[in-house]
Design brief:
Layout lengths: L1 H6 L4 E3 L12 E6 L3 E3 L9 E12 L2 H14 L10 E2 L3 E4 L4 E3 L6 E13 L1
Parallel strand pairs: 1-2
Antiparallel strand pairs: 2-4, 3-4, 4-8, 5-8, 6-8, 7-8
């Protein structure tokens, strides 16, 4: 997922802001849940995997934050590539409206988007 976002030209951090953070203060942060294995059938073969990934878009104003959200959705539109597995297109689960973070200087805007990711071997 990080590779797909970087291929779209986005500055990406995994679990934190990218280091160094871009001077534009525009970046995305990927948070990955541990996920779970799922039985492919009643035989209980655990070859399927599902997880939720949150991509938080951060920018200096609301308009650029929404622009980043659009770029994220474009980057994740097609199926993801995972070595040795078949991955499906991430399901866009949406997120809350853009919010302003006044706890940082200068204040930044952010919006998280959640995606459900599934794969099988």
């Amino acid at each position: 997922m990080v590779a797909a976002l970087e291929a779209e030209g986005l500055a990406v951090g995994l679990g934190r802001a990218p280091v160094p953070a871009p001077d534009s203060h525009m970046y995305v942060v990927v948070y990955v849940a541990p996920g779970q294995s799922i039985s492919e059938s009643l035989a209980d073969r655990r070859t399927d995997f599902q997880t939720v990934v949150q991509v938080t878009c951060v920018a200096p104003d609301e308009e650029r934050c929404l622009w980043l959200a659009d770029k994220v959705r474009t980057a994740l539109w097609g199926p993801l590539t995972v070595a040795g597995r078949v991955a499906y297109r991430a399901e866009d689960e949406g997120g809350p409206p853009v919010q302003r973070d006044d706890d940082v200087t200068p204040p930044l805007y952010y919006t998280p988007i959640q995606f459900t990711v599934r794969s099988t071997s």
